[in-house]
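Reading is simple: the token line describes the chain's fold. The lines below illustrate.

. . .
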Amino acid sequence: MNRTEMYKRIAFENGNRFPWYPEECQYLMYKRIAEAEFAQIHNLKRADIECSILDHYSIEINSLELLAGRFSNGFVLTDEQRNIMEKGRGIYEAAGISGGWRNNATGHRVIDYKKLLRVGIKGILAEIDANLEKIDYNSPEAVEKKAFYAASKKSLEAVCRFAKRYYTELIQAAENETESERRQELKRMAENFTHAPFEPCAHFYEALQCMWFVQFCLKLVDDISLTGRMDNYLFPYYKKDIEEGYITEEFAFELIEQLYFKHNEIYCSWPAAIMLGGVDRQGRPVWNTLTYLCVKAIETTGLVNPSVAVCYTEDMPEDLLELCVDMISKGYTRPSIFNDRVIQEGLLEAGVSVEDARYYVHSTCVEITPIACSNIRVATPYININQAFEKVLHRADLNTFEKFSECAKNVAAEIIRKDLTRVCEDMYAQQQYASSPLASAFINDCLERGKDCGAGGARYDFIYPCFPGFVNFVDILAAVKKAVYEEQVLTLSDVAEMCENNFEGNEKWRQYLLNICPKFGNDEDEVDALAKEIYEFIRSELKKYQTSLGGTFHPSYFAWIMHGALGKQTQATPDGRKEGEALSENMGAMQGRDKNGPLAVMRSIEKIDQKYGIGGIATNFRFAKSFIGSDKGKLAVKNFIKVFMDNDCFEIQFNVVDQQDLMEAKKAPEKYRTLLVRVAGYSDYFVNLDPVIQGEIIKRSEHNMI
């Protein structure tokens, strides 16, 4: 068994074993709080916590790894340490956000790795010192700026100390290693820390290690930064090393595999985004060797992470698209394909600069985040507008469909108002009391403005509310229009009573509402017009709100796993959905309701102007293995992707899994631990999903043709 196969097993087990935030990190954070000796300003409080973690976290080096930076297995709390941790936790929770210890993490951003690799932490510290020298103490912002710069400097210096500890450990491990090949590997790993991350990087291996190390440091302080466009910012180092014979393509590929395993170990099924292709900030196409290697590594690593996506442009190489389809046909669920043209148009419409609009990432699922300059909050919050119908169906005065629809939208608008008002309040509290000293050092324009990324330092402060069940809302309107107002076979009161009783004793009418009434995703102009109307309604409602930083709201249409959670909270609905069943998870047809095939789904959603959905739009398709596994099927799917993109659709993702495998996995999950499925913007192991989500996936239409 080769190293990759051995590491794959370890990465899978570690990903399922480690908690989201390691206990050792929690202990170090709460221990520091329990010491109760802090500066008064929240930025410096947070920097103290980041230093405490990075200065004391245990270092572990796996015998198989070529990249350093992983969770440690050896830490076990003593009784004394547990008491200290609980004391600190009590202080932290009693103080709440105003205690000043919380970070401004979003979990959905990419820092400026290109700058890190180009100038090193040394260059960023020099920039901070220069800005400190320029502070005008006649300015009301002087103290805020000084605290921000001091906090970021403190955290950056802690990263450098942590890197030195790694260097020492690697040298010691090499001296103790008896096997000569592994000894040389450890020495080469140590070499990566002789200059970086303090100094600029010179080589591909060093740059990849530097990027991962800083990403790992951010994860330790609970402030995620995803990998982003690695075929963009790492390719110059790769190209130079290949030309000079410093590295081979085979070794570079093994390093990419190792990076993927690292993603699985520290993120498990959290969709850690790597986006490939598209264009760079100058608009030049990015299709290079690393692009292909990153797609190929999906198969050789074969686990749930990273969440690999490709930016589709008209000049995307044919063989690369074929490689993507090949990965999908084998059931790996990745890459997802994003429409670069539509997304750029949407970002420009939202006020993003041309350069930043070209350089974005799907910041986990399908949420679009400009790289290195964002304090964007995604899925904030998940909003269930379908609960509006629980009030509207009882209205006896709605004697026309127009009145019914308007009333439903008015109640939905109030649901949106309450949710977004709460978000604005939360964002103000974050602005006042939370900070991210380490991450802010790598986010534009924090250093220039002298502000934390969550306090006005970041260039963009968008908020992306998410609308699981959007398709249900449309289907409900269509069903009520037909059943109550056109055919008049039911009254609103009839429908309300059936929904309240979960269609008990009314299965015939449920089937009528479910199968006879029109549904979105089948290229029916009347219901598609309703979808467009509700889409524009949501967009217009979001325009009414801004955060204290001037952040604007933009909708998203995916669900993560929240279509299941919200479905459990929602009574039966007039589209025939029963109480407790999942809501719709994407911009497409509700599960199993796409009766006219994938092209009809595309024709329905293309009628919606998807550039306004920069919060993220997912469109799921499920194909039978027997179809997409054939040459004819692969060609059909490749051409379908092209047509999908040419018709201004936002994103496309795939499930290729046999129905029998899904059913067997429910019965014997221990035999299907690595069975991958696309959920609602991200991938996960099927057996780890809530039964409601498992049932939703099983109900999706399995297509045998385009």
